UniProtKB/TrEMBL annotation:
Signal sequence annotation: none
Pfam families: Aldedh
Originating species: Streptomyces actuosus
Annotated protein name in UniProt: NADP-dependent succinic semialdehyde dehydrogenase
Gene3D superfamilies for the chain: Aldehyde Dehydrogenase, Chain A, domain 1, Aldehyde Dehydrogenase, Chain A, domain 2
Domain Aldehyde dehydrogenase, residue spans: 3-460
SUPFAM superfamilies on file: ALDH-like
InterPro entries: Ald_DH/histidinol_DH, Ald_DH_C, Ald_DH_CS_CYS, Ald_DH_N, Aldehyde_DH_dom, ALDH_GabD1-like, GABD/Sad-like
Amino acid sequence: MPIATVNPANGETLKTYEAMGEEEVERRLQLAEATFRTYRTTGFAERARLLNRAADLLEEDERDAGRMLTTEMGKPVKQARAEVLKCAKAMRWYAANAEALLADEEPAETDVKDSGASRVRVRYRPLGPVLAVMPWNFPLWQVIRFAAPALMAGNVGLLKHASNVPQTALYLEDLFHRAGYPEGCFQTLLIGSAQVDDVLRDERVKAATLTGSEPAGRAVASTAGEMIKKTVLELGGSDPYVVMPSADLDRAAEVAVTARVQNNGQSCIAAKRFIVHTDVYDAFAEKFVAGMKALKVGDPMDEETDVGPLASERGRDDLEELVDDAVRSGATALCGGHRLRRPELPGWYFPPTVLSGITREMRIHREEAFGPVATLYRAGDLDEAVLIANDSPFGLSSNVWTRDESEIDRFVRDLEAGSVYVNGMTASHPAFPFGGVKRSGYGRELSGHGIREFCNITTVWHGA
């Protein structure tokens, strides 16, 4: 895949970049290692000052940065600007909280005495250069939620971004440079996927984090395992959205539309499988389909657009194949179902789609639909709802709509997911851990859990 900005709204190639050669990659690895030796010794106050300055600059760039995201991957510009501001918020959160999150810990005095020590501390120390392999769907947010905690912990970052968002990748390096970070603290590696393995094998790279496809995760995890390096993986999801009879149906249906089509439906934590109790299935389906039909599909630069194009032609084609397979196998398209063919929208558009009659044999039951396509399931009772929800290789997040406390307890206990959102849609927040189970990956981003992922957790023991 070429490293290029291709506007998804019209298919026009705007700018193409040459991949960095071996000499330039080597220069950047040397710089990362050298910078880490000194940056690791900076205090939290200095790290916070730098990160807050980067947040200031990001907020100043809100409109231009938002348009850049929309141009490169097609999200509605309103959502792009919201992503920019969300990144600044997360940076400020880590600037304010990292010192407390990484403060030395003192074990219980009885355990200290039992060990024969006069004092024991647990200290969090940085690891070194961390490689981040990041996706295109949230081009700023995915990177910042790695970079902010990594930099506050005293690590330095190496970014291999998706090949279709090179301007965003270069912007991020420039952002940290303008904020005053020492050269080498955060660098973009403008390289293709085939070069990732060599970088990860380099002894100067101490750990890696990846958000992306399952095959990409397997490749990184395999190499990291061979080299015995720490990794965090977030590999997508097919999140269930369960609606029970006691739910506020109007609100559940309204939120369901947003939960499915946010970011043009290209979100790992978007609700994708809508599992509805049979007693309210028909009423919910009617409201949900009406909401999906009412969405405005169009130019992502238009402030009124709800759904823009998919980020790539291949992504649009892959989504269409999933829908076609389901319909051929007996599913019914309650709305949408075919790519848009409108002269005024020449890009890679796919309309909001709702499919019913899904069976286990259909590919869309097992695979992640990365676009504005929802699948509807009818559940006879709570037990069946849980079975359908867990009948997926993924386990990133989940959504449950019910006013029954016993049902809430049951879902929280039994759903196989990294998060359970009750009467609301999944969203990431810097204060809360984010990640999944099963093929959605392992490890956690954000919160104190995320910042400690790339730390050397060191026991310091003092003799009596």
